[in-house]
Amino acid sequence: MDRRIYGGSAVILFFLFLFSSSVASALSKNTNPSSGSGQINSNSVLVALLDSRYTELSELVEKALLLQTLEDAVGRHNITIFAPRNEALERDLDPEFKRFLLEPGNLKSLQTLLMFHIIPNRVGSDQWPTEESGRVKHHTLGNDQVHLSKNKEDGKKMVDSAEIIRPDDLTRPDGLIHGIERLLIPRSVQEDFNRRRSLQSISAVLPEGAPEVDPRTNRLKKKAPPVPAGSPPALPIQSALAPGPSLAPAPAPGPGGKHGHFDGEAQVKDFIHTLLHYGGYNEMADILVNLTSLATEMGRLVSEGYVLTVLAPNDEAMAKLTTDQLSEPGAPEQIVYYHIIPEYQTEESM
User: Fold this and answer.
1) Beta strands 175-180 and 162-172: pairing type?
2) What is the rounded CA–CA span in Å between residue 54 and residue 251?
């Protein structure tokens, strides 16, 4: 009887050994391909970029939410990064253009600009075209094209109009980084900036919120499909009226109509008077009324039914602005735009 028990135990132990071996082999098969699934290690060119001297470029990559995209690219193939020196992004770049890139609404332009500096293959300095071969075209991660060439006069290596000042500065198994003297600007981004500077892209355009980022995936949320022009509203306008003062926060009043007109100009005047009487917000009121025409624009928007939330900085905060910051063309408007949210927000909803 004892012999049967021991024999049964031996069979069970042998079965468990076979089962654990099969599980271990299955796990090893499933985990081996992960090296090419977008995960990176400490020896990756992306880690080298984030820890390198190119701190300005690294910060822009993080602000543009491109880390996951670049990780996926590195998992598929080698990449070559053309990294502008920090001075090219700090001092040499047009302040107005840099402000344009960092505005939340221009995230796509910033991403296009950064992807213009990366090509999806490995091009070392020893693979550079010669003077005889001429310019060689390469596609970037942003579906644009850059041209690599070598100057016939001085032999300098070039990418478009930028000189390679640190060839093969950082080399890793999955890519390399060349240091360049200036920022590369694709034509599409330059055209977006020119339209914005000439106010073509924001004239007669209804205000909309900045792109929303999903905190779980760190990716942009997809916008709802646009409603065809002339379509009736999904809800009647009177449904947007505040149901009563007892509810907090209450929905904002809707636009004017047969159910009662909404005087936006009077509401904005009342808002500015409140700033003055409350105290401590005189500078903000002065900018709205005297330095800009934003009070009139706000009144027009409110009359049309738009709801605005103003994050008003007090006089102490406004005093920290320098004369140079306020004397630039369009600077007061830009300051106020950053403090206006085109939707109804309260302390509880923020």
Assistant:
1) antiparallel
2) 47
Name the CATH code of domain 45-197 (choices 2.170.150.70, 3.20.20.140, 2.30.180.10, 3.40.50.1000).
2.30.180.10
pLDDT tens per residue, range 168-184: 999 999 999 999 999 99
Beta bridge partners of 217: none
- SS3 state of residue 216: coil
Residue ranges of E strands in 215-343: 219-220, 309-310, 340-341
Amino acid at 185: I
Q: What is the pLDDT of residue 200?
A: 52
Q: Which residues contact 288 (CB under 8 A, 6 or more apart)?
A: 272, 294, 295, 298, 336
Three-state DSSP at 183 gives coil
**Residue 192's closest CA among 116, 83, 113, 118?**
113
Would you say 150 and 131 are in contact if contact means Cβ atoms under 8 Å apart? yes
Give me the pLDDT at residue 209, please: 63
d(CA 195, CA 100): 11
C-alpha to C-alpha distances, 178 to 60, 164, 217, nearest whole angstrom: 17, 7, 30
DSSP state of 33: G
Which value, to the nearest 10 degrees, does the dihedral of the CA atoms of residues 318, 323, 324, 327 take?
90
Most confident segment among 21-25, 79-83, 283-287, 339-343: 79-83
Take residue 297 and report the two structure tokens written for it: 């624009």
The Cα–Cα gap between 317 and 133 comes to 59
**Cα diameter, the chain:** 103
Residue 190 banded pLDDT, cuts 50, 70, 90: very high
Q: Which residue ranges make up each domain of the chain?
A: 45-197, 262-350
Residue type, 34: S
Give CA–CA dist 141/70, Å, rounded: 9
8-state DSSP, 143: S
Tokens for 169, please give them: 């500065």
